[in-house]
Amino acid sequence: MQINFIMPYKTKSAKFSGTSLKDAGKNARRIYNKVIVNTKRKPFVRSAYFKNEKIFFDYFWDHLKQKGPKARFKRLQFFEAAVELIKNSKAAPALDRRSDKNEILYRFEGIIKNSNEKFYVQIKENKKNGNKYFMSCFPDQ
After folding, report:
1. For residue 102, what is the enclosing H or E element?
2. Domain assignment present for 4
3. pTM of the shown model
4. Is residue 6 part of a domain?
């Protein structure tokens, strides 16, 4: 039996410092506004793994609103690193095809620059139209 070990992507950006949701939210919005400025219609970044296809942000903010303040804070701290991972990572993700027949869920693994802290980025692909959406980023439990 052969086990393929995939090296997680090591980011150049650190996780946001600060101790409040407000600080993390400001930093995340600053990064998101840079993405908005570079796009004409729907905000997106291009992914190295998906051969430069667009990854849209439609679901991320709605998904984040469903979480409590502590979970939101933890997830927003990794936002800049998550965007960098989406743009630059060529490492193969874990796949989850169980969720729905019309969707594929990709889970990328990353490591923060200085702290060697693991985090994950989830991207959902709609099989019908091929669009990919950045769903969430969160620390390793």
Report:
1. none
2. no
3. 0.89
4. no
